[in-house]
Known about the structure:
6 helices, single chain, ten-stranded antiparallel beta barrel, alpha+beta, eight-stranded mixed sheet, 18 strands
Amino acid sequence: MTTEAKVGSFSLGALAVLVFIIVHLSGASWEEKGYNIEAVFAHVDGLKAGNMVRYAGVEVGKITGVEPVIDGAKAHLMINKNVKIPHGSIFVVSTDGFMGEKFISILPNSEAENFLKPNDVVEGKSQKSLDDLIARADLVMADMETLLSSLNTIFGDERVQQSFIESAINIKELTANLNKMSLVLARMAVDNEGDIRVMVNNLKLMSANMLNASARVDAMITDFDNNGQTTADLKEAIANLNVTSKRVEHMAASLEGVVTDPKTAENIKVTLQNARNVSEKADKMMTRVSNIKTEFGAELLYHGGERRYLSNADFKIFTNPNSFLLLGVSDIGEENKTNLQIGSGNDKFTGRVGLIESKAGIGIDTKLGEDVKFSVDAYDPNDFRVKLRAQYEFAPNTFLVSQTDNINKSEERETFVGLRKTF
Length: 423
């Protein structure tokens, strides 16, 4: 081989090695390296071609390009062919360190059953940038300056400063006075034990009188529980009796640890026992009075033929489960007819007597099952009238009502339908 041929062969070999090194360093390859995924972000803040793609922190590809689109920026990702990304995975623009290079981080969706395919488009999430943090910090600093300015305006006022100083002095004097008062009280307990003994005797007498009073109130409730008396005064009296007995009990208990005289100590024990008995009786009486229950009902009925509405309201006071007083008004806003009746019965059958639509009369209520109730009212002895009524409870405390007035007078007969609600 001639010298020229040797030099040419060496030059061609060196050129081939150089081309191989360039191709290898650039990452180029003659075979397909992976598949493309497109991720759309609101903003990417410096993301560019060549940046890494990481899946769960592991590098799995490169960014081949970034381009603007209508709703943000689109990044083209080349994912290694052996990497499968689950559907629903989160694509986030992240940064290596505080000022490091941008990259796309993929947070896998462990619950997905399918995987992304080549050329799929996903929606990415952009993390808060340093500019956003700086802007928020500026807002926070502005708010802090406003707050400090306000505080300075308040606490910089000499009158406010003087008030704080005076408050501190007053608190100091108050605590000193409290210490002196506690010493005086302790000394009074020792020096005035005789007076305390008299006071204990008075407490004993007071608790005995309250015990007798509670017995009388108990008897009064037994005698007059069903005579139509209102319960408000009884409740107030019982509540006051209970409060007073507890106060006596507290006073006696506070003296129990101070008094050393045996007779006085025994009187205190008697007082405590009487006060407790009064409290127990008051609680029992309050329970009995609380058994008196009330029920308010309102209804709106409609007469289709005459296009007329009828509104009624009533108030029931149950003195016991089987007796009640009914107060009500029919045809509110028009004729305002009064209903005032007393009734007695059980869950299945009830009788009523009194005023029905401002006229003397009687009424009967009967229940069929748990939801259906029928009522018949006969009233007005001078112009005898009969009213028939049915109601069905289709929801808690809510009823569908049908009512026919003057059923015995064909020319005056009216039928209404509507709703009733009880509370």
